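User: I'm new to structure prediction. If I give you an amino acid sequence, what do you actually give back? Let's try with this one:
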Amino acid sequence: MDSSLDTLPKISAPATRALNAAGYTALRQLAGVPRADLARLHGMGPKALDTIEAALEQHNLRLS
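Assistant: Good question. You get back a string of structure tokens that encode the predicted 3D arrangement of the chain. For your 64 residues, that looks like this:
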């Protein structure tokens, strides 16, 4: 099992806190989540979303 799916990618601290507060602690949990839902989280910016999408794409996964 690929451990990079078990952690969040390197994104800003506010974005990481936003994901953790929403219950996301691993990259695999973000697969299929609507980008718009993540964009609404306080502290989540376009750069962090792009980083998450790029990390998911490495595993042939994506946001919805």
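You can read the tokens as a compact description of the fold. Here is one thing that stands out. The mean pLDDT is 95.
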